[in-house]
Amino acid sequence: MAEVIYTTPNMGRNTQGEREERIVEIYATIESLGDQHQDYVGTEESSNTLGTVRSQQPDPVSPPQWPIRAVVVLLGLLSVALLAGLLGFVVQHKTVCMDGDVEQLLQRLKNVTEQRDSLLCKQDCPGGWTKFGCKCYSYSSERGSWNKSREICVSLGADLVVVDSKEEMDFINSRYARNIWLGATDEASEGIWRWVDGTVLSADNPSWGGGKPDGGKKKNCLLNEHSGTIWLGVTDEACKASKWGLCEYNLMK
Asked: Against a cut of 0.70, is the pTM above it?
């Protein structure tokens, strides 16, 4: 019994001593871990600090960004300039082509018109009509005023004659050598002589007789005047005067 009693206390001391040693070891371990943690934290902070510093500095391997942007901008401007030049060339080319096409179309139209006129001019005039060029001529069926003579011509599908050239006037004077109504008047506007097709007969026209027209508002219709077989030129005459009219039928209309 005595041995057991004495043995137990010894075991208690030993246990207590071991506990103290273990506590010392634990403190030592904690201090060691603390030192390691502090070292680790210091190392991490240093790494972060270095990382921050490095991130603020440009990478020596990567080239600066502004030259690349400048090159891109220059290439973009060059592309726009080339595109504008190409579009201008295409438009100009198309314009030239269109001008050529228009000229060809106009030439074709002219050729077709000439062929049509040639075919029409080959037609014969109705019976009782005299042909000159592409026109047919005939006296009105009766004498009358300028308006009356024109009504007769229109009823025949014609109109009072419109003189287009000196050659035509020469033909009329050789074939119809008498005082006849021609298709011009200034009744609508004094002093402005117009043919029935709307074209203007100038007061400077060489067909006018000397000093003509001189009738003012009393003489507003055009008369081709003769004295016997002598042509005196065209003159203004009172529209109510009774004369023969010369009708004209244009084969090209």
From this structure: no
